[in-house]
Predict the 3D structure of the following.
Amino acid sequence: MQKQSVFTRYIIPLLLLLVGVGFVVYGVTDGEAGAVLRKAVAICMECIGIG
Amino acid sequence: MKKLLLSLFGLDEASLQDPANIVGIVLTFAVWALVLALFLVLLFKKRFQIHRWGNKVWQRTKLLIQTGWFLLTNSFMIGWVKGTIYQGSLKYVCVPGMNCYSCPGAFGACPIGALQAVLDEFDVSKSWFDPASGTYIQAPLYWFAFYVIGFLMIVGALCGRLICGLLCPFGWIQDLLYKIPVKKLKLPRDEKRINGMKHPGTVRFFLGVDKYLRYAKYAFLVVMVIFLPLVVKANPWFCKYVCPSGMLLGGIPLMSRNEGLRDAAGQLTLLKLSIMTFTVVLSMFLYRPFCRYICPLGAIYSLFNPVSLYKYGIDDSKCNRCKGCYACANACPMGVDPVKTPNSPECIRCGTCNATCPQKAIHAGFKMKTVEGNAIRTHKHK
């Protein structure tokens, strides 16, 4: 059986995790979280089929 | 304490005069207590060893986890009581599953709705009116949704589509619908069984159709969630024209409690109701049709399945595939062969194969070896 490497098993997901955390931090500082909140606290007419 | 409570529920001092709000808050705490008790029982009474429980016990446990998560993330009872939605600061945060933020009980934001909302934002200073086309050209404010994509990367890198299997409210609804006892559309994966059927060619044809239709969810993701909101703007396209979850979890409960919304219903409501009804009916016959063919969130998480920390793996020293055992492949409700591809992008990590395997050869988790020290194969069988 082909042996799996520690790199593909653990390092790649951990790197992705770190990049993800970096993206979230950058997004928050750039005001994207505010855009999410603005949309989420009002009833989304498109989502509920009113338009 | 009172201030914290008010800010948590997104209410002000005056709103406490309304008895419906007090009832809502009390009910919310009751739901949280129930869910906490449920998870504590699951954690301490039964150790998480799916492959030792057997499929029947696991399916019941899975349903409890799904129900608990749905209750926890949709427990803003004021919304359910009054036909409103939560407006507090918890909505800065996305929930990992498909959960419309216009659901009256939702405490968090839907990641697919949030993704479209960020890409849909436009920069007023860089927008202009084009007299030739008579339209207002809107320049995107964000060319990339770092916040939402980052969140999805964290969740995906941790557990991939485990979210679809255990923590998605719309997935839970489809699971419940599939429990309705009607004839199921389930095709066998095992060549021996296919060849033994009356029309093996037809079975193979539908297996092929199913295989290629699954790519449609990537098209929905690229076109309706990313491209159209970013370039054409003005609409969260997927939410508006496709998402049955928004209609089921948001539209129906809100319209049933709110006369103004009912009066505003029109052709779009009819379209969305038709899509929702079709999905609901199909879910009784086919396991999770929305997750298979449409869900853009599942499409994103599926890319992480082969590289996530939490993985499925096969202990080849125990597996009886060489002796013709197809128990896991035939049990998989998503039509994946776990022995061939333990971390297939189509696997929603529902644990059915794990609980069904008579040899206890399928493992799920973060490790590279079994308790006995055998190596676990997580990659494709060659």
Remarks:
- The beta strands of chain B are 122-130, 135-140, 311-314, 362-365.
- The CA atoms of residues 168 and 351 of chain B lie 15 Å apart.
- Chain B has a mean pLDDT of 89.
- The first helix of chain B runs from residue 2 to 9.
